[in-house]
Amino acid sequence: MIDDILQGSGATLAYGAVGIALLALGYLLVEVTTPGKLGQQIWTERNRGAALILAAKLLGVGAIVTTAIATSEDDLAAGILSTVVYALIGMVLMTVAFYLLDLLTPGKLGATVVDERELHPSCWVVAAADLATAAIVAAAIS
Predict the structure, then answer these.
(1) Is 44 helix (H, G, I), strand (E, B) or coil?
(2) What does the alpha-carbon distance between residue 5 and residue 22 come to, in Å, rounded to a whole number?
(3) Which helix (DSSP H) or strand (DSSP E) does residue 39 occupy?
(4) Looking at the 3D structure of the chain, how many domains does it have?
(5) Which domain does 61 fall in, by range?
(6) Which of 25, 100, 102, 17 shows the shortest CA–CA distance to 58?
(7) Tens of pLDDT, residues 108-133
(8) pTM of the complete model
(9) What is the C-alpha separation between 70 and 83, in angstroms, rounded?
(10) What does the DSSP assignment read for 52-106?
(11) Taking 90 as the threshold, does the pLDDT of residue 8 lie above it?
(12) pLDDT, tens only, 42-93
């Protein structure tokens, strides 16, 4: 019993560390696809559009990571590897969806979603695209 708890605790720490690293990568993807400093826009300037886009990206990555963990095999190393691979695929697809929306819409989408003047309706579209893409990837995993 104690061995099971220790083994489970180790797996939890490993998956948790990988999950946090993948969330950090999701943050960096939003940073790269939008102009300006994301942290400053959200925490200093209180930019709601930037916060919405980041929140959707993090929720999407979290959903993919959660599904990958829940469906992983008992082998910890294989489970960690599959979690990372599926999350990276999901983030690539979310980024492709973002750039596809950028091609289909007027102006530069990255600049539009972080416009300080207002919460542009395109923020909701980008957030929905991120969450929908994550749901598709999560469903494909299971």
Answers:
(1) helix
(2) 25
(3) helix 38-39
(4) 1
(5) 2-141
(6) 25
(7) 999 999 988 889 999 999 999 999 99
(8) 0.93
(9) 10
(10) HHHHHHHHHHHHHHHHHHHT--S-HHHHHHHHHHHHHHHHHHHHHHHHHHHHHSS
(11) no
(12) 999 999 999 999 999 999 999 999 999 999 877 999 999 999 999 999 999 9
